[in-house]
Amino acid sequence: MGDHQGFTTDPAALHTFATDLQHDLDVHLSAEKTQTLHLFSAAGLFGTATASPDVHRAALTYRDRLIELFDVLDTLIHEGAAMAEAAHAIADAYTEADAQARTVLTVEGGH
Predict the structure, then answer these.
(1) Considering the entire predicted model, what is its pTM?
(2) Rounded CA gap, 83 and 87, in Å?
(3) According to DSSP H, which parts of 27-52 are helical?
(4) Are 69 and 58 in contact (CB under 8 A)?
(5) Helix, strand, or coil (residue 62)
(6) Could you state, in chain order, the average pLDDT of each consecutive group of 10 residues for the chain (111 residues)?
(7) Cα–Cα distance, 96 to 111 (Å, whole number)
(8) Contact partners, residue 101, CB within 8 Å, separation at least 6
């Protein structure tokens, strides 16, 4: 590791990661969730009008699992967006800290 202490960061790469993550959430996961939700909500639920209690129960279980899946997807989208926002904030904080460190080193170093 030589004379260096600590670690290095690449705020631009972190901003790129955050932007790409948000894009993937918006364009892929969120859009596909919405499209799938419309597809399933437009169709009738197979088996709910049957005389068989087993088929009826299975249809309701299937519906309940779909609702749970959409709740999980909503959570993933929300948490992913929070991660993207945090990544931007972290990159900004590193950029600001680097600028302040350069200012301090310039003033104290006389350059």
Answers:
(1) 0.70
(2) 6
(3) 31-42
(4) no
(5) helix
(6) 70 95 90 80 73 86 87 92 96 92 71 55
(7) 20
(8) none
